[in-house]
Design brief:
The chain is mainly β. The protein has one domain. It is 9% helix and 37% strand. The chain has five helices and 22 strands. Strands 3, 8, 13, 14, 15, 16, 18, 19, 21 and 22 form a ten-stranded mixed sheet that branches. Strands 12-11-10-9-17-7-20 form a seven-stranded antiparallel sheet. Strand 14 and strand 15 form a beta hairpin. This is Neprosin PEP catalytic domain-containing protein. It comes from Coffea canephora (Robusta coffee). InterPro entries: Glutamic_endopeptidase (IPR053168), Neprosin (IPR004314), Neprosin_propep (IPR025521). Keywords: Signal.
């Protein structure tokens, strides 16, 4: 199985490139969130995407030509799949025809790139090597399928895992990609992460990331993703979070290729966030070849030992519901915009004593995984 391109991409996801042109737009309204964020409500036509020369004459698509009607219900007992809630929404809302953009200073947007400059240099020289001294810097525990796909879906359990070092991160995501090397790789990612070097805190935040041929971008930090909703802020903190042996909370994420519009649409919950034009992702112009669901931790090995940064809930998959983190209703679009169950999914865990994954299927939650772990422990020194 050819995973080289995905692993190279994931290293560069951590680098989190940003354009210096990150919005210096005048907001229609600004909202101060209780978590310290400032959300600027910017007119939809003045969002960062249109700083890209490829999109300057782009006509905004106001809605996709698909729906989630008829999809199986989320039946896993005691979990709550609520309309996506972000802390800033408690302090106000953005007007119609605007989009919420989390305010980010240019120096903050470049912090992650600065911290991981040496790592990026190493990857640029050795695109096939993601290991240093025998241990993967990226710890992956996930399910993966390969084929021809036009979309994918997941219900992702939301947690607040601990991150040991500010230059580390932990993320739970859905990844859609095509390409085997950095020179021809196009990819879309969506999920949640705790990334102190990017967001300057340890909150669990909704994120997107796209990558194409040596350039990538988080959220709306540079041009690329076109947002159409005024209700959800990319990079905004999620609330509430799941409780160990207590109440569980989820978000639905769905990415679908619309051939008639030449875009990949993103839906979170019942809200259509926006889309990535295929002109920015040439290798995804027709379809994706690899879909992945799971967790990733970046281990900086700052003290010469494995990190204690947690993946998912911070507990291993054997603990099951209310203990381990899960993703359920894992589905793919194979043809005719119909969601299908997985065919021959493969489980990948690079360091199973640190972070692991188990696959399953049930009538309640379809294809699912339990995944994650605590990082360093007696069996993971």
């Amino acid at each position: 199985m050819e995973l080289k391109g995905f692993y190279c991409f994931m290293i560069l996801l951590i680098v989190s490139f940003s354009d210096a042109s990150r919005l210096s737009k005048t907001p229609v309204k600004s909202i101060k969130s209780e978590d310290g964020d400032v959300i600027d409500c910017v007119h939809i036509s003045r969002q960062p995407a249109f700083d890209n020369p490829l999109l300057r004459n782009h006509v905004i698509q106001t809605r996709p030509k698909f729906s989630l009607e008829g999809l199986p219900a989320n039946k896993l007992s005691n979990s709550k799949n609520l309309p996506i809630a972000q802390l800033w929404q408690l302090s106000g809302s953005c007007p119609e025809e605007t989009i919420p953009i989390r305010r980010t200073k240019q120096v903050d947007a470049l912090t992650a790139s600065s911290i991981h400059r040496n790592l990026h240099s190493t990857v640029a020289r050795h695109t096939e090597q993601i290991r240093q001294e025998g241990r993967p810097k990226l710890q992956l525990a996930a399910a993966l399928v390969e084929g021809e796909y036009y979309g994918a879906k997941a219900t992702i359990n939301i947690w607040g895992p601990l991150v040991q070092q500010s230059n580390e991160l932990t993320t739970s995501l859905l990844s859609i990609s095509r390409g085997s090397s950095l020179s021809n790789l196009s990819s879309i990612e969506v999920g949640w992460q705790v990334n102190p070097s990017l967001y300057n805190d340890n909150r669990t935040r909704l994120f997107t990331f796209w990558w194409n041929r040596f350039k990538g971008c988080y959220d709306l930090l540079c041009s690329g993703f076109i947002q159409i909703t005024n209700k959800i802020a990319l990079g905004g903190a999620l609330s509430p979070l799941s409780i160990y042996h207590g109440e569980q909370f989820d978000i639905d994420v769905f990415v679908l290729k619309d051939a008639s519009q030449d875009v990949w649409w993103l839906q979170v919950g019942k809200e259509t966030l926006g889309y990535w034009p295929t002109s920015l992702l040439p290798n995804l112009a027709n379809s994706a070849s690899t879909i992945l669901w799971g967790g990733i931790v970046f281990d900086s090995e700052s003290d010469g030992q494995h990190t204690t940064t947690q993946m998912g809930s911070g507990h291993p998959p054997e603990e099951g519901f209310e203990g381990a983190s899960y993703m359920k209703n894992l589905q793919v679009v194979v043809e005719s915009d119909n969601l299908s169950p997985l065919s021959n999914p493969v489980a990948i865990a690079q360091q199973p004593n640190c972070y692991n994954v188990t696959l399953g299927k049930s009538s309640y939650s379809g294809d699912y995984i339990f995944y994650g772990g605590p990082g360093r422990n007696p069996n993971c020194p």
